[in-house]
Structures
1.
Amino acid sequence: MNPVAKMLIIGGIVLIVIGLLWAVGSKFLPLGRLPGDIVVEKENFKFYFPIVTCIAVSAGLSLIMYLIRLFTK
């Protein structure tokens, strides 16, 4: 099988798994509503910037990538 096709299939499966985990996990881990996320609400205006959520997702993905590199050598 073509290596590009194999990577696209694996990437699609990974995205599906992440989407399912996000849908199920949102009941237990409120990503997007963590303490430290910036929310400004006024009459006709709502500004939302999930800075702590971005940091948590980045740290988690960095850990996953580190573990993948560690075990693939």
Note: The chain has two helices and two strands.
2.
Amino acid sequence: MEMIEKQKMAIDFYPLMRHALREAEKGFAKGEVPVGALLTNSDGRILAKAHNLPISHHDPTAHAEILALRNAGEFYKNYRLTGCTLVVTLEPCIMCMGAAFHARISQLVFGAFDPKSGAAGSLYDLPADRHFNHRIEVISGIMEKECSDLLQNFFRDRREKNRVSDPRRNQIQAV
């Protein structure tokens, strides 16, 4: 496994985020909340990728980040992923940030902020908490609009399907 080098190579995160968005679109097609994640080594080579699957796997931990970390751990035969970067379309939740800390990733790159459950700067800022014995560099807002638009389209479609499928919602209620 690569260790963090003193002179880190500059990586263009936009192509990586496009890969993560393609993963998120796979989740969208399956009816999952469209979040995609991938893990790269220090050179930017993709080691693992995943999309949300908690609904289809009946598993509340089947977030894209967790699945990508698991896949990379299998690849390396090690749960420590020192020197790796996690690229995700949506700011990770507390569970996913905890997994990232335990995996010892070096860097987190995300697109859209999550003001309701984000744990990397929005609702909580775990990477800034000096109580942890590991530091994760955070780069936020990469392709934020594209990532946000995909999520908004998903939830708009879901609301529309729910409105159409429930005829009672179309009736005017008498007061």
Note: Confidence is low (pLDDT under 50) at residues 1-7.
3.
Amino acid sequence: MTEKTGGKPAVDLNCDLGESFGPYRMGDDAAVLPYVTSANIACGFHAGDPAVMARTVRLCREFGVRIGAHPGLPDLQGFGRRELRLSPEEAYDIVLYQLGALEAFLRPYGERLHHVKLHGALYNMAAADPALAQSAAEAVRDFCPSLLLYGLAGSQLIRAGQEAGLSTVSEVFADRGYRPDGSLLPRHEPGALIHSTDQAIARVLDMVRSGTVAAGDDSRVPLAAETVCIHGDHPGAAAFARLIRLELEASGILVRSPPGG
């Protein structure tokens, strides 16, 4: 169930940012940041580079948005969305490596990371595979045990994070379809992506209020909606972020980043 603050329902709006690379621009981070409360910054494996990471950190500080790491698979060409064979040991190493890379850009400002959210295929693999989930959670814990671990609501990663002693934040998606088991529909399947802004906003309000989501077969799947993902690389991401925040606040739902980190 969505956390309540002072009796008022509360939810976080997070966005994947810093996903440009060299001369290739992905999304408009500065336009999205006024409307979200936490940002997941790519760490150079699936996207991002040192200059992009530094610039995105500065933008987050300018807008007062909490900064998280967004570790992905080492697959720039595939944007980290292609599954790669990965041992639990390799998963631990690549997550730990990327956390260190991003925090290097925070230290000059005397700041530390707030949270960690895995990216793309690594996110989905860890959501379903207990061994990979455990390795990723342990990498986060060993780096800094006070970090929040964001993960798919009801997933193996949330369970692994809790078992590792981390504070977890259950994530839902405004623009993605769900299976009856609570997992996300693969992007190539019908209904996987929701393109209607009105439909996506109505879906978020429903998830936050009810603690359930309508799956592809019209069944209701229980989930904890503690943070809502907005994809910063989508066209119109800033307009969507603005609308969804306005609708949440108009519905009496507090939009804020989760405490901790």
Note: The chain has eight helices and eleven strands.
4.
Amino acid sequence: MNLDKILAISGKPGLYVLKVQTRTGFVAESLTDGKKITVNLKSNVSLLSEISIYTYEGEKPLTEVMQKIAAKENKGQAISHKEDNAKLSAYFKEILPEYDEERVYPSDIKKVLNWYNTLQAKGLVTDLAPSPAETAEEAPAAEEKAPAKKAPAKKAKAKKEE
């Protein structure tokens, strides 16, 4: 699941996709209604790929938590975030048994489930991140591509010097 361009904007309901970066901020598109909004740099914005859930062993990236929900639900909808707190906690305990119950509040669980269901409704749950074994196989391919990206940058730099 690729959460690199999915945003949660403080004060705005739902999730957004980063579209274009501007000098004063960026343009984001709502996943719920498709409306585009401009967001200034002073807004409190979180990339979903940067969010983690507290566990007793450390922190677990939100991507991994959502992958576990997708595996449990066979990439279908999870339970509603509007269920009572006891039911939500029990469900989350099935997904992530080692989550820190003192530091992860019911409101956090509601957010995660709401976000997961929003992404699932838009068909973004099928874009699962590669497993570590697949990443190791693709690593040489990524290394081959890296010099190709650097070469044009050097040419552009050479042109500026002339």
Note: Helices lie at 62-72, 85-95, 106-121, 132-161.
